[in-house]
Write a sequence for this structure.
């Protein structure tokens, strides 16, 4: 796997996890469970909730897609290199 592959996998996985956590935060802002009171903790007014949800959803989707593409690009590059070595 090598250092480069481990680093690419780690960065891609971390970026995907950050995207997932951002999506969870957007859901908690929308749902606002009584136990957590996320809106009160973050002091978000009712009128700004759709803006925060949209912004966090877009950021989370880009982060998840980018993290998965980093992992995919590294694995496809590795497979191409292995095929060239066989020939």
């Amino acid at each position: 796997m090598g250092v480069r592959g481990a680093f690419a996998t780690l960065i891609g996985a971390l970026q995907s996890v950050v995207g997932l956590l951002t999506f969870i935060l957007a859901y908690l802002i929308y749902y606002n469970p009584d136990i957590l009171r996320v809106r009160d903790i973050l002091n978000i007014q009712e009128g700004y909730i759709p803006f925060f949800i949209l912004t966090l959803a877009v950021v989370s989707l880009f982060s998840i897609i980018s993290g998965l593409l980093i992992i995919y690009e590294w694995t496809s590059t590795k497979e191409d290199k292995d095929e060239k070595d066989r020939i």
